[in-house]
């Protein structure tokens, strides 16, 4: 019995050690304690020095054990700190977990790949649900203006906007955004007096949303911000597995797909507006209409939904998904034909994935000695917290006590008659 108890404690200690190692290598922090379905989630990821920086395609959201498409705005703020935000699905049933997958870390046993996750508590009946772009603001050098888009998805129409002293605005009275509509607010910032905790605060239906305003940090391998390149090029491109969407469907069919918009130039592109052109916009929706900025080489996922309500009238719908900023733009063609169904044909409501997402594989250099069939944690010296030591000792005491009680001899109680018989003998 004692052996079984000690084996159990050893297994528990190994599990705790593995969890501790993961949390030390990558820590996921939520900016709010809980969120409502459809609300913008703000996350900060703090890592140790990784073999390679994290990328947006390593981020995933699982709800009820099912992977859900998201379009995260993802920024590497410092060498080991990442800021990101994304909207939860409007229908979020079941526990939600945000995961960072395929993290590469080189420890004492070489390079290993593993995953960390964080549960996102979801409120069933929130009083306020806002979609905010951007939910973090990282300022470029000499940037003086800030734009924030707020979409009211649930709650009162009245908002209050306040900000740190270094951020000025004209919204000193209650602002109005009706449910289901969006509004862009413009503010000005003085980076010379920007506070370390500078932020824009939005109060809505008793809830408070905080948008941190930060100066961009220079990292190793990047040229100083005051060092200009010989030639700056701005170029946008949609990245998808197909050059266009061209489908023929019936009225009871809806389509969805995720593609990426990438900055393929060598200069930051700010204030990117996304819109649909042509009559295809009457049956198509996109989850993002404003991208504050894309750094060179950075890409952002955009999700298309076509004929979501499955109420599109028969006909031909054509147009483009267009991204515009300054003097650059990109277009992605969409052509949908909705055919009428015969009265004798049964209704068969279906939702089809367009398979637009391109998967950027992490290159496996020959110098990397990795066994990806088993995701192991690097063995390192772990400093166990005092609480864990106390709990472990308590479990050991319980196991030993249980063992002693099991071995104790049971003393049979004698009746008075049995006692007299023993004396007479």
Largest sheet, in brief, is: 5 strands, mixed
Topology, number of strands: 29
Any idea of the CATH class of the largest domain?
A: Mainly Beta
Radius of gyration (Å):
29 Å
Measure the end-to-end span: 41 Å
* CATH homologous superfamily assignment of the largest domain: Macroglobulin (MG2) domain
Total domains, how many?
A: 3
As for the CATH topology of the largest domain, it is: Immunoglobulin-like
Could you tell me the mean pLDDT? 81
Helix content: 10-25%
CATH architecture of the largest domain: Sandwich
Neighbour order of strands in the largest sheet? 12-19-18-14-16
Overall SS class: mainly beta
Overall geometry: globular
Plain-language structure description:
By secondary structure, the protein is mainly beta. The protein has three domains: 1-125 and 384-425, Macroglobulin (MG2) domain (Immunoglobulin-like); 127-219, Immunoglobulin-like (Sandwich), CATH 2.60.40.10; 231-373, Immunoglobulins (Immunoglobulin-like), CATH 2.60.40. It is built from three helices and 29 strands. Helix 1 runs antiparallel to helix 2 (386-407). The model is unreliable at 14-23, 225-230 and 360-383 (pLDDT under 50).
């Amino acid at each position: 019995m004692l052996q079984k108890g000690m084996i159990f404690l050893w297994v528990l200690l190994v599990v705790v050690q593995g969890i501790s190692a993961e949390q030390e290598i990558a820590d996921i922090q939520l900016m709010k304690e809980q969120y409502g379905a459809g609300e913008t989630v703000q996350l900060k990821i703090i890592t140790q020095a990784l073999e390679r920086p994290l990328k947006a395609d390593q981020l995933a959201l699982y709800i009820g054990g099912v992977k859900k498409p998201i379009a995260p705005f993802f920024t590497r703020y410092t060498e080991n700190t990442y800021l990101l935000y994304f909207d939860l699905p409007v229908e979020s049933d079941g526990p939600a977990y945000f995961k960072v997958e395929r993290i590469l870390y080189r420890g004492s046993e070489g390079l290993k790949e593993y995953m960390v996750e964080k549960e996102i508590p979801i409120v069933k009946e929130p009083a306020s649900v806002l979609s905010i772009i951007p939910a973090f603001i990282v300022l470029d050098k000499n940037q003086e203006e800030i734009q924030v888009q707020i979409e009211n998805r649930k709650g009162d129409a009245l908002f209050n906007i306040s900000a740190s002293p270094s951020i000025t605005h004209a919204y000193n009275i209650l602002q109005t955004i009706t449910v289901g509509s969006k509004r862009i607010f413009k503010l000005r910032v003085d980076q010379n007096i920007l506070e370390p905790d500078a932020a824009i605060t939005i109060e809505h239906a008793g809830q408070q949303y905080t948008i941190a305003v930060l100066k961009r940090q220079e990292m190793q391998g990047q040229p100083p911000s005051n060092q200009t390149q010989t030639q700056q090029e701005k170029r946008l491109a949609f990245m998808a597995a197909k050059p266009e969407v061209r489908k023929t469907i019936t009225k009871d069919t809806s389509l969805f797909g995720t593609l990426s918009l990438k900055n393929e130039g060598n200069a930051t592109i700010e204030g990117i507006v996304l819109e649909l052109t042509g009559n295809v916009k009457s049956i198509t929706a996109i989850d993002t209409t404003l991208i504050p900025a894309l750094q060179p080489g950075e890409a952002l996922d955009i999700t298309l939904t076509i004929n979501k309500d499955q109420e599109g009238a028969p006909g031909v719908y054509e147009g483009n998904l267009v991204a515009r900023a300054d003097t650059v733009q990109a277009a992605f063609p969409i052509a949908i034909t909705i055919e009428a169904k015969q009265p004798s044909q049964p209704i068969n409501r279906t939702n089809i994935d367009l398979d637009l997402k391109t998967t950027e594989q992490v290159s496996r250099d020959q110098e990397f000695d990795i066994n990806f069939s088993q995701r192991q944690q690097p063995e390192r010296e772990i400093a166990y917290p005092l609480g864990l030591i106390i709990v472990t000792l308590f479990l050991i005491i319980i196991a030993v006590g249980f063992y002693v009680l099991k071995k104790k001899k049971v003393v049979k109680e004698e009746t008075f008659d049995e006692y007299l018989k023993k004396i007479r003998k």
